Each structure stands twice: as structure tokens, then as C-alpha cells.
């Protein structure tokens, strides 16, 4: 088991290395660098000025050298102003030592965000915390509701309840966040006026029922159907097992059979599914945060990508890839732990 | 500017009337299908369940809407009639006397016509991109599952690499306007569009390699037809000038194929690993058939059930992905009538006007719902066998 986890962690590190290399390559494509330089200087800068800006900030150095610097295995060189001979930081809003130093991901230095004029860490961690709050509430609503729907539907296969709930869960899986978000906003914000159509105030004045319900609802609804379907399938399978019939035949009531015998085994599969939902939720986070103007991780990612903010975008991709891979690992380990029949080799 | 309006009842009636070619085509297709149900195999069995009928009807509805969109839509989807800015549903356009059935948007275009024309974009890109993704995923998934070992390790690692990317980040990296200046989209397109040709060439070769009379015509057809499409799509150099795709659409297409082929790969690989242990595969191996013959002619046909179900779901998922691209304003032209872009435009203005937002959202939702219902019914039917 320990070997398995270690090997998985190794693969994880390799995957993250490959993916950040790909992202690094993509954000450093010539048009993207031009875009960055123009956004940092001014629209009408002549090409020479753009070139000298890129040169000055080290964007023209060797690709692998720069990737190494970002990673923290190659020293970062201080910038010396040729005019005055003084050592000044490249970006006035981020500190930079005057000697060569190792300052990359491995040292915990995420770099400097050109869009927000801050260090990436200053921007990224609060955004992650904000998204964590959102995710927490989404999970709190999504998981119990979907499990309940799945269990109710799978308990008695083929009944009217089952059909209705199944069609309802198919319908929610057909409703992506940008669709349900619009529909809910129309119903609850524009029409009934109960809820706030924007979560912008959640960042400044804290979350409340009126500004947070819509984002949570929008995100939860897309996942509910999928988890409910999986729970239903698992429940249906369990209900046809011999031991359920035995329990019925020894005279237990239907409710007792479901709660005491079926549930425990039926909930193993949904656990995996819920864990594997995280990558999906990550995309949902981006859409919902953009739609409701909630300043979280997704919002930061969109801003970073839209402005080609290299360090911030790399930080965001590192975090999201880590989340995806780590939840996969948890789901595998948890599955083996919950289901003793599975032995990890 | 005051508009004259028609009532809610007339709007509904107007919408139903505008869709007349769709109703006609639906009636014909459904009538024929139900009449010959017994002989239509899996498709015929769909009509045994309510869910199946609903799925077929919704999917066909949007298919015919896409085909007949020029007849259905009363206005040009890009045409701006200035006085109709933000007109409410049912407003009468004074010049032609036609009705803006679902109102006008902030650029005074007809919301109804845009929704109808949007179906065309979605119904071309989504199924085509899914088809390519299935080709790529199958061609790579078959050897990975069949041979296992190092090929499997490498291919699975690559697939997991792509799957570990959040889709949205992938799109932001792959579908930026700047990337059109680099060879990346064309390179990827060149790679992906090669797979169908390889697939069909191998398919025919393994089957007919001892029967040159059948083999050569089929191979010639594959290479000429495939090469023609390939030239048109990748290099935009179709000698006949029929097949062409604008760079933006090519970019979207490539991104969507890239994002969804690892999923197909995983499913195919899993199915192959399962089917490979069956007796008929062992029999074929004993007969001395080549590995690719076994993969393409013994394993793949027996994996078709789950693959068809997955294809339905995947077209729906691709539609959602396209909508996401539109919603973030990536790739598609800003005035494009596709549903995602329309939702983006409308959702910014929800505070003042809600009517432009509802038609595209409901259209997208119903189409994906139709596909999901279809997939569910197909799954039920194939489980019965």
C-alpha cells in the first residue's frame, strides 16, 4: 500500500512537471509575450520598446533556463540598470534580492503577477480560500441531496419514483453552469427578487444567504445528477444481492434492510465518483465565479489567462493540477480502504 | 420608440408556425420509423420506451432546425434593425410586418432567428468534433488495451496528462487569438485529422489484404477522399474549393477534439482489456490473425454498444464545451449566433432584460437533454440483449 502511494506520488510529480512545462511553453509563445508587453507598456509602443522590455525582464533568455528559474533549480539574476549601474527590481511591486538567488516553486516563491501588481502568493492564497468556502457549501448541499436522490431511486428499481428521479437527474446533467446560472438568476433574482444576482459583495462584506445561494445552487445542480445516477446504479446492484434477500426473508422491514444492509455497500462507488468530481467542479468554479463576480480561484484564473499573466497562470495551473491529481489519489486509496475486496498491488 | 406587440398566445402560435418544416420532417421520419420499427434494430427498439421517444424527438427536432434554419428564421441572425433594440418578445418590426417572436437583443438582432441559426453551428461542430475524438481515442485505445505493457504506459500517461488539465485552462491556452499566428493549431489539426485516414486504411487492409480486387478500390477511395478533406481542413487548400474551414473554427475544433479524445481513449482501452480475454479472441489468435485484424474486426464490433452510448453522451458534453467556449468569448466570432456566445451576451445584461437570455439557454439545455435521454434509452436497450 505504501509503495503504491509512493509510486502514485512519483507519477504525480512527473505529471505536474510535464504539465507546467506545457503551460510554460504556451504562455511564452511569441504572440502571448507581445500581448503581455503591450499590456504592460502601452498600446502604441514601438516594436523596439517592446523588444527592449522583453529583453530587460528576461523573457528573451533561453526557454529551459527560464523554466529552471521558475522551478527554482537555476539562479535568478538581479537586474542592473545599464544607465545608472544600480541594481533595481524588475517589477517595482515585487521585491527582488540584489544577489543571484534560487527563487522558484521549489523554494515556495510563486513569482510576480503582472496583472494585479502583487506577488502571486498575495493574490493566489486568499482566492483559494474564497473558493474553498464556495466548494465547502457546494459539497454540503450537493452530496446529501444527490445521495438521497440516488438511494430513493435505486431502492425500488423501475417504480414511478425511480423513473421520475432518474429523468430529473438526467435533466440536471444536461444543464451546465452557465445555463442553470442564467435560469436561476432570472427566476430568483430578476423575477422573484429573493436573492442577489451577484456574489461580488461576498468578497467585501462576507457571505450571506442572499448573495451566496445562487452560486452554490448553480454549481451543485450540475453535479447532483451525475452523483445521483452513480448512486442509483450502485444501489440497484446491491439490492439484487443475495444477502439483501436473506435479510428480507428473515423478516426485517424494508426500511431496515435499506438502512442497515444496503446503504453501507451502496455508498462505496459514489465516494469515488464524488472525489473524481473535483476536476469537474474546478471548471464549474471558473464559470460560476465569472458569472457571479466572486473573487475566487476561478476569477483569478480567468484574469490571469486573459492578460497572459505568466507567473499567476502557472501558479493557478499548478494548484488546479495538484487538486485533480490529489483527489484521484485519495479516491483510489479510499476505495481500496472502503472495499476490502480490492487489494492494491 | 414604441412598438406594437402581439399577445403571448400569438407568440406561441407564431413560433409553432415558423417551425413548420421541422414538424413536417419529424412527422415523416417518426411515421416511417414507427411503421418499420421491427426491422430497424437498435434504433427501432428506442420507440419502445417513453424516454427513448423523447430523446429521438428532441434530437431530430434540433437536427431539422439546423437543416432548415434558413426557412425557419424570419430575420438575418446578424442583421441589426436599429429601432428593434431591446424590443420585448412579440414586437412587430414595422418595415416587413414580421414579428420579433422572442424580442431583440442589445444589438437589435432577432433573438429567435439567432437561436435557430445557432443550432446550425452547434450541430455541425459538436458531432463532427466528437467523431474525430472517437477516431483518435479508438485508434490509440485499441493498441493500448490490446498490447498493454509499454505502449499502454506511455499512452495512458499522455491521456492522464490531458485529463489532469482543467478543461477551461486548456481552452484558454489553446484558443487564444494569438495562437493563430503560431503553427500549433495547424500542427495539432494535421495530427488529429490523420487518424481517420489511418483508421480506415488499417481497417480495410487487415480485412482484405488477401483480396486485392476489394482492397485497392477501398484504399484508393480512403486516400483520395480522406486526402481531399485533409487538404481542405488542414491546409485550406482544397483544389475543388468545396471543403474549407476558417482558422477560428479549426482552432475550436482542434481544442475540442484534444479535450475529449483522452476520455474516449480510456473507455476504449478498458473495453478492449475486458473483451481481449474472450474465447473468440483466443480463437482468432490461434487462427493466426494479425493483431490489428483482431482489434478492428473482432474486438471493436463487440465493443460497439457502450461506444454508441458514450458517443451520444459525448456529443452532449461537446455541446456543453462549445457553450463554455462561447461563454468565455473564446474562438468564436463575437457576433456569432451560437448558443454559448448568446448566453454570454445576454447574461451580462440580466438586470435590465431577461428575454434574450432564455431562448439560447433553453435550446442548449434541451438539446443536451435529448442526447442524454437517447443515451439512457440506448443503454437500457443494450442491457436487455
Contiguous helical run count of chain A: 15
Biggest sheet statistics of chain B: 2 strands, antiparallel
When the domains of chain A are counted, the total is 2
Order of adjacent strands in the largest pleated sheet of chain A: 1-2
- What is the number of helical segments of chain B per DSSP (H or I, 4+ residues)? 17
Shape of chain A: elongated
> What's the architecture of the largest domain in chain B in CATH terms?
Orthogonal Bundle
Shape by Cα distribution of chain B? globular
Beginning-to-end CA distance, first to last residue of chain B: 63 Å
Which whole number gives the mean pLDDT of chain A? 80
How do the strands of the widest beta sheet of chain B line up side by side?
A: 1-2
Number of strands of chain B: 2
Measured by residues with Cβ under 8 Å of the partner chain's Cβ, the largest interface is:
A-B, 51 and 46 residues
Q: Percent of residues of chain B in helical segments? A: over 70%
Report the CATH topology name of the largest domain in chain B: MetI-like fold
DSSP strand count of chain A: 2
Q: Strand-residue fraction of chain B?
A: under 5%
Walkthrough of the structure:
By secondary structure, chain A is mostly helical. Helix content of chain A is 70%, strand content 1%. Chain A contains 15 helices and two strands. The mean pLDDT of chain A is 80. Chain B is mainly α. Chain B folds into two domains: 148 residues, no CATH class; 200 residues, MetI-like fold (Orthogonal Bundle). Chain B has a two-stranded antiparallel ribbon with strand order 1-2. The interface between A and B is large, with 51 and 46 residues.
Notable features of this structure?
heterodimer; A: 345 residues; mainly alpha; MetI-like fold; two-stranded antiparallel ribbon; 1% strand; B: 385 residues; 2 domains; two-stranded antiparallel sheet; 17 helices
SSE inventory with pairings:
The complex is a heterodimer of chains A (345) and B (385).
Chain A: H1 2-27, H2 30-40, H3 47-56, H4 63-71, E1 112-113, E2 118-119, H5 120-155, H6 160-173, H7 177-191, H8 200-205, H9 209-239, H10 242-249, H11 254-266, H12 268-276, H13 278-292, H14 297-306, H15 310-338
Helix pairs in contact in A: 1-15, 2-3, 5-6, 5-9, 5-14, 6-9, 7-9, 9-11, 9-12, 9-13, 10-11, 12-15, 13-14, 14-15
Chain B: H1 8-18, H2 20-35, H3 41-45, H4 50-67, H5 69-72, E1 91-92, E2 99-100, H6 111-147, H7 149-164, H8 167-174, H9 184-192, H10 194-208, H11 212-235, H12 247-275, H13 279-287, H14 291-302, H15 304-327, H16 339-348, H17 358-384
Amino acid at each position: 500500500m505504501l509503495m503504491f502511494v509512493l509510486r502514485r506520488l512519483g507519477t504525480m510529480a512527473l505529471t505536474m512537471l510535464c504539465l507546467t512545462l506545457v503551460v510554460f511553453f504556451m504562455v511564452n509563445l511569441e504572440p502571448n509575450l507581445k500581448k503581455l508587453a503591450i499590456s504592460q507598456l502601452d498600446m502604441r509602443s514601438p516594436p523596439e520598446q517592446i523588444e527592449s522590455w522583453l529583453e530587460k525582464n528576461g523573457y528573451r533568455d533561453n526557454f529551459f533556463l527560464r523554466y529552471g528559474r521558475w522551478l527554482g533549480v537555476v539562479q535568478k539574476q538581479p537586474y542592473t540598470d545599464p544607465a545608472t549601474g544600480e541594481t533595481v527590481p524588475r517589477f517595482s511591486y515585487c521585491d527582488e534580492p540584489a544577489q543571484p538567488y534560487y527563487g522558484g516553486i521549489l523554494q515556495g516563491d510563486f513569482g510576480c503577477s503582472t496583472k494585479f501588481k502583487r506577488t502571486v502568493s498575495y493574490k493566489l492564497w486568499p482566492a483559494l480560500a474564497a473558493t474553498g468556502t464556495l466548494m465547502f457549501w457546494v459539497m454540503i448541499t450537493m452530496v446529501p441531496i444527490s445521495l438521497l436522490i440516488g438511494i430513493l431511486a435505486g431502492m425500488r428499481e423501475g417504480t414511478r419514483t425511480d423513473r421520475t428521479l432518474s429523468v430529473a437527474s438526467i435533466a440536471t446533467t444536461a444543464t451546465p453552469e452557465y445555463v442553470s446560472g442564467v435560469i436561476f438568476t432570472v427566476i430568483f433574482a430578476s423575477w422573484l427578487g429573493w436573492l442577489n444576482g451577484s456574489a461580488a459583495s461576498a468578497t467585501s462584506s462576507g457571505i450571506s444567504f442572499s448573495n451566496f445561494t445562487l452560486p452554490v445552487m448553480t454549481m451543485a445542480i450540475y453535479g447532483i445528477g451525475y452523483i445521483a445516477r452513480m448512486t442509483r446504479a450502485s444501489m440497484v446492484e446491491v439490492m439484487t444481492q443475495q444477502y439483501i434477500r436473506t435479510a428480507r426473508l428473515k423478516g426485517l422491514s424494508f426500511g431496515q434492510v435499506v438502512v442497515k444492509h444496503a446503504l453501507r455497500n451502496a455508498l462505496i462507488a459514489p465516494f469515488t465518483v464524488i472525489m473524481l468530481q473535483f476536476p469537474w467542479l474546478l471548471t464549474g468554479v471558473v464559470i460560476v465565479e465569472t458569472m457571479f463576480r466572486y473573487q475566487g480561484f476561478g476569477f483569478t484564473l480567468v484574469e490571469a489567462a486573459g492578460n497572459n499573466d505568466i507567473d499567476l497562470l502557472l501558479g493557478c495551473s499548478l494548484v488546479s493540477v495538484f487538486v485533480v491529481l490529489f483527489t484521484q489519489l485519495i479516491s483510489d486509496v479510499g476505495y481500496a480502504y472502503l472495499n476490502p475486496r480490492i487489494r492494491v498491488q | 420608440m414604441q412598438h406594437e406587440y402581439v399577445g403571448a398566445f400569438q407568440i406561441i402560435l407564431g413560433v409553432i408556425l415558423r417551425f413548420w418544416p421541422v414538424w413536417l420532417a419529424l412527422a415523416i421520419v417518426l411515421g416511417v420509423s414507427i411503421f418499420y420499427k421491427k426491422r430497424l434494430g437498435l434504433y427501432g427498439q428506442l420507440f419502445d420506451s417513453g424516454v427513448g421517444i423523447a430523446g429521438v424527438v428532441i434530437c431530430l427536432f434540433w437536427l431539422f432546425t439546423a437543416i432548415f434554419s434558413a426557412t425557419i428564421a424570419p430575420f438575418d441572425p446578424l442583421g441589426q434593425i436599429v429601432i428593434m433594440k431591446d424590443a420585448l418578445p412579440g414586437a412587430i418590426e414595422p418595415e416587413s410586418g414580421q414579428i420579433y417572436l422572442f424580442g431583440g437583443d442589445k444589438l437589435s438582432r432577432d433573438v429567435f432567428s439567432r437561436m435557430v441559426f445557432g443550432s446550425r453551428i452547434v450541430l455541425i461542430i459538436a458531432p463532427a468534433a466528437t467523431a474525430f475524438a472517437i477516431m483518435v481515442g479508438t485508434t490509440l485505445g485499441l493498441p493500448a488495451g490490446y498490447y498493454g505493457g509499454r505502449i499502454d504506459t506511455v499512452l495512458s500517461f499522455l491521456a492522464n496528462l490531458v485529463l489532469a488539465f482543467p478543461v477551461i485552462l486548456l481552452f484558454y491556452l489553446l484558443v487564444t487569438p494569438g495562437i493563430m499566428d503560431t503553427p500549433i493549431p495547424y500542427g495539432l489539426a494535421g495530427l488529429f485529422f490523420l487518424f481517420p485516414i489511418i483508421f480506415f486504411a488499417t481497417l480495410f487492409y487487415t480485412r482484405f489484404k488477401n483480396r486485392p480486387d476489394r482492397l485497392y478500390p477501398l484504399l484508393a477511395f480512403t486516400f483520395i477522399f480522406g486526402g481531399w478533406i485533409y487538404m481542405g481542413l488542414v491546409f485550406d487548400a482544397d483544389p475543388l474549393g468545396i471543403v474549407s474551414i476558417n482558422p477560428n473554427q479549426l482552432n475550436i475544433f482542434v481544442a475540442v477534439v484534444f479535450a475529449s479524445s483522452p476520455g474516449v481513449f480510456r473507455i476504449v482501452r478498458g473495453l478492449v482489456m475486458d473483451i481481449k480475454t474472450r474465447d473468440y479472441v483466443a480463437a482468432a489468435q490461434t487462427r493466426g490473425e494479425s493483431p490489428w485484424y483482431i482489434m478492428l474486426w473482432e474486438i471493436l464490433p463487440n465493443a460497439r454498444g457502450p461506444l454508441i452510448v458514450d458517443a451520444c453522451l459525448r456529443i452532449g458534453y461537446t455541446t456543453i464545451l462549445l457553450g463554455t467556449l462561447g461563454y468565455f468569448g473564446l474562438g468564436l466570432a463575437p457576433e456569432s449566433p451560437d448558443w454559448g456566445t448568446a448566453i454570454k451576451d445576454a447574461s451580462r445584461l440580466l438586470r435590465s432584460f431577461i428575454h434574450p437570455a432564455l431562448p439560447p439557454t433553453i435550446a442548449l439545455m434541451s438539446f443536451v437533454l435529448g442526447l442524454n435521454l437517447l443515451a439512457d434509452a440506448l443503454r437500457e436497450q443494450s442491457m436487455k440483449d
